[in-house]
Amino acid sequence: MRPQPLLVCRDVEAASRFYQRLLGCKSAHGGREYERLVDPKLHHTEYGSDGLILQLHAWEVDHHHGNMGDPALPIGNGVLVWFEVDDFDAAVARVAELGATIVMAPHRNPPEGDGGPNHREIWIKDLDGYTVVLASPDGEASR
Predict the structure, then answer these.
(1) pLDDT digits (tens, 9 = 90+) for 22-62
(2) Residue 52 belongs to a domain with what CATH number?
(3) Are 53 and 85 found together in one domain?
(4) Does any domain span residue 93?
(5) For 58-69, what is each residue's pLDDT tens digit?
(6) Could you tell me the CATH number of the domain that includes residue 121?
(7) pTM score, two decimals?
(8) Residue 123 sits in which domain range?
């Protein structure tokens, strides 16, 4: 199984640039209506995977599968798009460069002790208002 999350966006090209800069991923499709963002390090030829980490889709385009949401409703209520990054400190610097809204500044999860993921996180908003969490690898906070 391979997750293939999809976010519906107001401006697919702007969202693509944002995520490419934030995550260091690459475009594998491009365009105003739909984008596939890939991490080349995750390429698995035996599965046919191109390292897909995120899909972006325009609100107003149905591509024969119908409407994927109502842009008049709150975007992403209750949805967090979570990415583990190997370069947490550099990712935090990229958040600052992008001027992203910070929901929760860098912090340890859990705040104390060795339970849980024992990593660092930063929570931000993307260009459309989705909450995006960047987390260091599990166990990293105790190293």
Answers:
(1) 999 999 998 999 999 999 887 665 555 678 999 999 998 87
(2) 3.30.720.120
(3) no
(4) yes
(5) 998 877 887 788
(6) 3.30.720.110
(7) 0.91
(8) 80-142
